[in-house]
User: Fold Amino acid transporter-like protein from Caldicellulosiruptor hydrothermalis.
Amino acid sequence: MFEKLKRILIGKPLPNEAEKTEKYGVLWGLPILSSDAISSVAYAGQEILYVLLPTIGFLAFKEISVVTAAIIILLFILMLSYRQTIENYPNGGGAFIVAKDNLGVLAGIVAGAALSVDYILTVAVSISSGVDQIVTALEFLKPYKIALCLFLVLFLMIGNLRGIRESSRIFGIPAYAFMFSILALIIGGYIKLKTGYVPPEPKINYSPHPVTLVLLLKAFASGCTALTGIEAVSNAVPNFKDPATKHAKTVLLLLSLIILVLFGGTTLLATHYHIVPTEGAMLVLMAQEIFGKSIMYYIVAATTFIILVFAANTAFSGFPMLVAVMAKEEFVPRQLSMKGDKLSYSNGIIILALVSALLIVAFNGNVTALIGLYAVGVFISFTLSQSGMFVRWLKNKGSHWHIKAFINGFGALTTFVVVIIIAITKFKEGAWIVVLLIPLLVFAMIKVKLHYIAVADQLRVTPEDKELLDVEHNIYRNRVIVPIESLNKASIRALRFAKTISDNVIAFNVSINEEQAKKLQERYKILNCSIPLVIRYSPYRKILEPLLEYIKSEEYNYQKGDMITVIIPKFTVQRWWQKILHNHTWLFIEKELLKHKHIVVSVMPLQLKDDDVVLKKKNKPLWKILEED
Assistant:
């Protein structure tokens, strides 16, 4: 039942060879990876006015231009900086890899944690803001706001589980529709002003205060949400068709130009039309004043709603790729580096959906409350990424390194100042949660990495370990298969036990790529073991099916009456949280194999020591262990 539902929602699985066809070019990469930044047009301007209007009244419509200009300057600094990141780090990972390579492990972990928090908040903010837009236009939906938000998170999750190519088609067209509708809004708004239209003056309740630097900085901090999503292109370079770096740099340039036109145009338009966002969503109110309740009004409202929802798709593209890179580096559970049926990082997609849904419920879909948490994480990652690139140029130099170092150094300094501004001005509004959460995530990631180091130390096979297989025993009509994922002490222990119960033993491996199979063959030869190794390639990343097909094959020559014992190697860890960090594929294999009456399943455990005991034997500081691994 579950498998049928899965096939209906996600579709048929794709083989590994289809990965090249799942990448996108500029046409579809632009809307998918820029929708977060482009969607900020819908709320960045109104967040600036939220800060300015209650304090300085009509002067807000003048000062919003100053704040917008500062944000656009910062946008182009980031664009130039991240173009260099794309060129030098084409394998993805963005700020995490850049900071780790150039500033050290701790800086990399902080960047990864900060960016992960930002992606989760991107989903929560975008969807909550999108639903705000639509309930402004259709008030009867207000009681169902949270239910709509959760439905849309589920919709995005399923859409992305269907694979990169399908999701780019699903979510790409609405992004282009939004761009054209807002461009039409800007052009229509200025044409209406030029033909003599005088916007009505709204009633604004405010407490008269002078325009201070602190006030402008607070407004600037709110408007900087327009820059979230810029880093997504550098994180997802491997998702582009070849030449990937060229396509990614083109998308980043186009993205910056689009934000310049749309964000700059709508905020300037707000100064003429005196839009007060406390009465509803700014773009929807602006469309009503320019177009009335005509078809264009509903097009703007609909496309704004859709782009805000689909803006979360940038996170669904960037977050799984980021955590997959971090999983390969063993700072988060390894399962997050595994690709699903449609060659997407499905575990990362599901986790992103679950955590963002919890945030929406916890904050009751309040955009202003969530925005306070929003920009801190992304600007921390901006700062670390640009600092890492700056250090890289100082170390490696190369052609025009002075100019490149200046761009990245100035970018690092600018974004660091913005981090301080946001942390101070938004601290009471919720930024304190992120300031607390990031160190906790960093601590958790370090514990995960140290655990994997301790496990690897205990499972590592040495030349002396081949003696463990030297066991002779006579047996009766019992054939043994030992499925091994890799060659380690747990699999050696299982093979040793197999020799005690049968002379007919086979080590069986399922490989999802040729490189993995080749490495295992080379390592297995070193053991000089009498047990043959059989490797089966699984293009659809299935584990159980190749094993069953092998048992039924002529090569295995199963005879009626033979009993087959499948011995599953397994290692056990000491603490409950460590269990989450390892695959439990053996449970699924055991459950399915026990459905066959001629197959016996045995689990061969290897009890690992506590991480602290193993790491203490190294007699080195923890940071040294992290750096050397």
Q: What stands out?
A: The mean pLDDT is 82. The chain is about 65% helix and 5% strand. Residues 295-328 form the longest helix (34 residues).
